[in-house]
Amino acid sequence: MSTFKKVFFFFILPIIGVLFYEPATLASVFSLLWVVLLVFFLLGFLLWQGYAKALTFMIFLSGMNVIIRLMMLLSTAFSEAGVFNPSFTIFGLLGAAISFYLVLRLDKVDIRQHMIR
């Protein structure tokens, strides 16, 4: 597995999948972003080192992100007045799609072969 693929699947995609929200939403929780970035960076580092439990935890977190985004999408895509919120819907669906792809991709043989511990 190339270095680019490791960086992409262990660091970039997990962070994008979790933090893919509207900019206004991210601005309101700016201080929490650093904690999330640190956690995912540490988890990516453990994946890079070959810890199989870190891979299981990353798959779990990505799967939970898909479930939570779908639940939020069902409750927030339309306001109580029935007004459609397209930006939240688009960001929610794309974030769920990225995390779903990550769940499927992290469970492939080439990544599992990298896990040595």
Oligomeric grouping of the chains: single chain
Strand content: under 5%
Domain module tally: 1
Q: What's the mean pLDDT score?
A: 91
Order of helices and strands: HHHHHH
Model regions low in confidence, pLDDT < 50 over at least 5 residues: none
Tell me the distance between the termini.
17 Å
* Rg (C-alpha, Å): 16 Å
| Gross morphology | elongated
Number of helices: 6
Count the strands?
Answer: 0
Biggest sheet architecture = none
Amount of helix:
over 70%
Classification by helices and strands: mainly alpha
Overview of the molecule:
The chain has 117 residues and is mainly alpha-helical. The protein has one domain (3-112). Helices cover 79% and strands 0% of the residues. The protein has helices at 3-19, 23-28, 30-49, 52-76, 86-106, 109-112. The longest helix has 25 residues, at 52-76.
